[in-house]
């Protein structure tokens, strides 16, 4: 697991918290912020996943 994967998951969690707080307090801005954080976290985690896959692939193809 690399730092992009960890940060991505962390951002998703923060986003879910913000979304939940926004819904509970009827604050659409906070809810939207949470949705955006979750989306950004998913992108960052996917980037980290791709980096890990490339690293693993390079290891297995090395002579």
Automatic annotation (TrEMBL):
Pfam families: CsbD (PF05532). Residues 1-63 are annotated as: Disordered. Residues 48-63 have a biased composition (Basic and acidic residues). Residues 4-56 form the CsbD-like domain. Gene3D superfamilies: YjbJ (1.10.1470.10). InterPro entries: CsbD, YjbJ_sf. Belongs to the UPF0337 (CsbD) family. This is CsbD family protein. It comes from Paraburkholderia solitsugae.
């Amino acid at each position: 697991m690399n730092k992009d994967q960890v940060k991505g998951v962390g951002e998703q969690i923060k986003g879910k918290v913000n979304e939940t707080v926004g819904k509970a307090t009827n604050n659409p801005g906070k809810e939207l912020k949470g949705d955006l954080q979750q989306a950004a976290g998913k992108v960052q985690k996917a980037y980290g996943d791709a980096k890990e896959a490339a690293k693993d692939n390079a290891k297995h193809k090395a002579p």
